[in-house]
Amino acid sequence: MKNQQIEALIHQFKSIFNTTDVRVSALPQSGSNRKYYRIQNENQSAIGTINPDIRENEAFIYLSRHFNKYSIPVPKIFYYHKPDGIYLQEDLGDTRLYQFTGNKLTDGSIELYKSALRQLIHIQQTALTDLDFSVCYPRSSFDYQSMQWDLNYFKYMFLKLADISYDEQLLENDFNKLIQWLSGATDSFFMYRDFKSQNIMIYQKTPYFIDYQGGRKGPLQYDLASLLFEAKAGLPSETRQQLLDFYTHELEKNGLISKKDFLYTYYGFVLLRILQAFGAYGYRGFFEGKQLFLQSIAPGLQNIEWLLNNNHIPDQFTHLIDCLKQMTESPKLQQLKPYAPKGLTISVNSFSYRKGYPYDNTGNGGGHVFDCRVLPNPGRLEQYKMSTGKDPDVIAFLQKENIVDDFINDACSIVMRSVEEYQKNGYKHLQVNFGCTGGQHRSVYCAEETARRIKQTYHIPVTITHREQEQYGQNTL
Question: Domain range holding 214?
């Protein structure tokens, strides 16, 4: 079915842009089930989307057209076919506001943030005109039920999977108190829901906005919390305060809400957004094995520590505070803190093709993928079904096969040439991936052996991740 959907998108692209010369490339998947493809010729480009969730598509298409009507910079919709769950939208390029954060934060990027916040207020105000909230997905408003979903997501997808102990009833009591507090905020605005620098494209030097399909009626505070406390953006506390002051000044200038009223619940929404994000880190990271989400845990914990240290979580949330302190002190979570050496680093990954390619969150875009499915498969033999490529019996089985040794020699030859060229050019990261059917035997063995040889030859930091085998991520050689 997917090939037919791609062909339909290509056909529409050819028709819309009157062209026959078309190139298609898949774009990296993030935290959703949507599939994105860049479809282009020499002069035009569009993003083709495949999404089986029809209600989510309907919300995105409706909101895109609504925002375009009010001159809000979002992608234009060129084509939408509801039955197939496909649409073509304007290609806004690859530059995100996220790329101007962290160590790259400058006066120029602060101005981009301020420009995005001015537009955010414009977006939030469209709810005061003719926006039809009945189309919003999955609910028309960010109400008691929505907040309860977010908090349960955190409880079951993060606390459970991270082995943080809690008393179900005591935690539920604190959740109810938090929801009651936040329910007092004015909620007659449009809430973007996932307003973060990853979803703000810089196109023609202007912030454009994507991924608002979860937007609905709600409070102003949540969106600002989403942007300023985005874990991996790592905004310094003084920058967060500067942007908070700017945003609240703009709100008052537009006659929407006083700074005092805004701040009354603001840090409660910061807490709620952080907990929702940790639910995603648990589900997408621990459960689905996506490294991008696991790598957000450490900076997310820093945000929690900041809230605790600055007394922004009311004392009445006794049990929730205890859970948060357990998180910041957990050895299991501490080991996920990122390692950031100065020179070239190499990540070697094993993976299952059934679950897709490993994601390269460094933005380098280079590296190698080696297909181990051409090698003899010990997983077909009963005595090896419970073993992995790190176990002596599987290692002995594979070492007896000449084709395995030849395969690793060839792979290492290619990788080591890349290592030397990367070092000459001052590149910082090389990713090497070995895939097989289940990500358990052949790919694990090849990744281990290749990493050992690289380390032995170059004495470079090498991180090994067996995505399908190691629930909590990485080993560093």
Answer: 97-334
Question: Is there a cis peptide before residue 358, judged by omega within 30 degrees of 0?
Answer: no
pLDDT digits (tens, 9 = 90+) for 138-153: 999 999 999 999 999 9
Identify whether the C-beta of residue 347 lies closer than 8 Å to the C-beta of residue 415: no
Q: How many CA atoms lie within 13 A of 277 on its CB side?
A: 30
CB within 8 Å of 303: residues ≥ 6 apart: 229, 231, 274
For position 88, what pLDDT does the model report?
A: 98
CA angle (110, 114, 120) in 5-degree steps? 140
Residues 6+ apart with CB under 8 A from 277: 231, 296, 300
Only one residue has tokens 């020179």, namely 343
Query: Do 301 and 199 share a structural domain?
Result: yes
Total structural domains in the chain? 3
Coil, helix or strand at residue 23: strand
CA nearest 91: which of 21, 16, 145? 16
Q: Of 51-60, 410-419, 438-447, 451-460, where does mean pLDDT reach its minimum? A: 451-460
How long a stretch of residues is the chain? 477
> Residue 293's pLDDT is what?
86
Q: What is the tally of helices (H) and strands (E) in the chain?
A: 15, 14
First to last CA, the chain: 43
Closest CA to 403 of 373, 436, 427, 381: 373
CA count, 13 A, side-chain hemisphere, 119: 22
Q: Tell me which of 47, 73, 90 is where a domain ends.
A: 90
Which secondary structure element, helix H or strand E, spans residue 280, and what is its range? helix 259-280
Mean predicted confidence (pLDDT) in 259-268: 98
236 and 153 within one domain: yes
Say whether both 27 and 128 belong to one domain: no
DSSP character at residue 30: -
Nearest partner of 292 among 439, 110, 420, 465, judged by Cα: 465
